[in-house]
Inverse folding.
């Protein structure tokens, strides 16, 4: 297998954009990405689209050739990848594999979602489709409810506190406030987070990620060819996608994201690294508890120590291993299908030294963790400076 | 690249099954397929799911791990592929590529759709999502309307007649009547087809494929390992997926399926064959005109001669190149996401000599053509006896 490089990134801002449709967001991200990578539309061998629920949110399906066609890309395979909130993570995984295996030379991976044209109850219903609608959904469990059960159990097993959950929110809002492309650039206090409107106990509104519109694109080629296009390539050191059961009641232990742990082990092995080598990470904080559990399942800390770790300051911008310097799904926003590629863009930005006010100095090896549903899909990627 | 073999196939009947949900159909096809290929769940390296609009039809999304989990498959990449009516064709294309490239050893590809729980107007609206909803959809064009425009133009350019369209319907119903897994096992006369209820002039109800439930699965491994699992492997000789613009008004010539023509040329080149070597084919007759145009774009006849060819009898079971011996989408049924893998199963069945009453004697090289929307996606596969 060949080594693979990210040679271009392109993102729209994440937010609520009443005047933008899904396709225009995806086209903007894709065109920025091609420009960033100095690649022409005619040079792209295949188009990988990550999108969770465009047909449900905006009524348009068959999105891959629809978006590619608007960019002038025809005559190549154009396919939409769906794996719930890990849709563009899955698209990215398969795009990397195709270049590594020699199936393609240059590929464009775009993630997109347009959510804010629907009401919040309707969005919540569409998102519930990522869980088991025959069981969880029929019982009335929304995604906040599912993650509230996970949080409650983690509190029971490990003594995790609401203050520790809130610490994740405070940190991510602090980071997002410094990110010009973030949806909610608002600093919050621990007290505010704790006193937030209850959504599904113990989660308040500040424990929940945002409903956003946005798109993010990544351009890949074999590492050996990267310098034809850019003087700032970033290398894919390791990557894995894996799965587990969708329904919480089918899982052996809801305080562990089994698929994340398995994907991380595979990605570390491929990279020849261990968790301790990861200098910073973008984690899938769809809810604050998800960031805490991910730090455990990625091996950053031992099982049960994610709560104290979140509250310790070690994951802040000036900490030993900064997490979600972008603001995370919590503050940057969570346009579901764009989140996976969005994380890749954010990690690449740090490695390139282009993160502005949020720039880290220990920025050579970063990780992205993209989660689908309540953990049935996970994609873990380790990126490194060339 | 390694050569790839189909080592197992499994299908549900296609039809309207009020008592079956989407997952149970997919699980049935997948389990039959694994049994047919003598492969255990634990031996599958990756699960490729083709599904067009499960979330819109039945409310369940994140379908790949949802179905895989119900089969006991966890810990592997499980991803849904969407490319409109070519969704499982696209899943199959990527699955073949992954085995050819050495990314996987054994993979399961399942296509599924559950459509009949919605009313026909609602199904029509969901299907319209495969076209350009901002243009065609907003103007009120359903898929029958789009293909009616294509048919009308083909009539104008080449003198194609309603009788020639009807000949496709008559033949496919005749074949489907002999297929125990077909949705509508009903022989029709030319007169019946011509006098069918008008849907979108010049198309009558007999020019339109069916709204169906169903699933079809295919198991792949490297050709060199096929005999570990089966004594009747079938070889993937050539395959290609490609794309063009979604909206009819963006196409240079609506009487040509550009993506089909391009995919066919690539697939023939990979196989080292020409159109004249294809002994039989399963074509995407979502509408009768689509089968006629496909015979032209695949190079079976010259441009404009598809109509007379359809009426000549040469594409019947006893003709020189039988087309849609399964009954096609017209009579076998068109559970959208299952159609691509369904065609592969049908071609494999003929090559293996398992097609019963419909069995061909010239059955060594068969082709499947799977179309997305009004032609924005095309997957063409050439399969051959080992």
């Amino acid at each position: 297998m060949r080594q693979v490089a990210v040679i271009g990134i392109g993102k729209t801002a994440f937010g609520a954009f009443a005047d933008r449709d899904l396709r225009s967001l995806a086209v903007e991200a894709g065109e920025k990405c091609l420009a960033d990578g100095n690649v022409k539309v005619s040079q792209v061998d295949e188009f990988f689209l990550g999108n969770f629920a465009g047909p449900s949110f905006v009524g348009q399906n068959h999105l891959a050739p629809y978006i590619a066609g608007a960019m002038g890309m025809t005559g190549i395979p154009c396919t939409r990848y769906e794996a719930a909130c890990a849709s563009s993570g899955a698209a990215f995984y398969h795009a990397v594999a195709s270049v590594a295996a020699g199936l393609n030379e240059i590929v464009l991976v775009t993630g997109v979602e347009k959510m804010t044209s629907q009401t919040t109850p309707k969005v919540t219903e569409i998102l519930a489709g990522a869980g088991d609608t025959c069981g969880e959904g029929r019982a009335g469990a929304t995604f906040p409810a599912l993650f509230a059960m996970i949080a409650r159990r983690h509190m029971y097993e490990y003594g995790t506190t609401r203050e520790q959950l809130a610490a994740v929110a405070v940190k991510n809002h602090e980071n997002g406030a410094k990110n010009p492309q973030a949806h909610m650039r608002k600093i919050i206090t621990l007290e505010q987070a704790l006193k937030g409107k209850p959504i599904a106990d113990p989660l308040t509104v500040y424990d929940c990620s945002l409903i956003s519109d946005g798109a993010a694109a990544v351009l890949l080629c074999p590492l050996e060819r990267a310098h034809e296009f850019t003087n700032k390539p970033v290398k894919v050191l390791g990557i894995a996608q894996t799965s587990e059961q969708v329904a919480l009641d089918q899982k052996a232990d809801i305080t562990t994201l089994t698929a994340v742990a398995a994907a991380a082990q595979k990605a570390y092995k491929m990279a020849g690294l261990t968790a301790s080598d990861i200098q910073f990470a973008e984690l899938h904080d769809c809810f604050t508890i998800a960031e805490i559990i991910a730090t455990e399942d990625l091996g950053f800390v031992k099982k049960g120590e994610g709560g104290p770790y979140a509250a310790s300051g070690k994951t802040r911008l000036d900490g030993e291993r900064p997490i979600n310097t972008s603001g995370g799904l919590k503050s940057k926003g969570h346009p579901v299908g764009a989140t996976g590629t969005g994380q890749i863009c954010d990690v690449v930005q740090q490695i390139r030294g282009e993160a502005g006010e949020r720039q880290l100095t220990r920025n050579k090896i970063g990780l992205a963790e993209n989660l689908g549903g309540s953990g049935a899909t996970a994609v873990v990627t380790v990126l490194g400076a060339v």
Observations:
- Chain B has a mean pLDDT of 98.
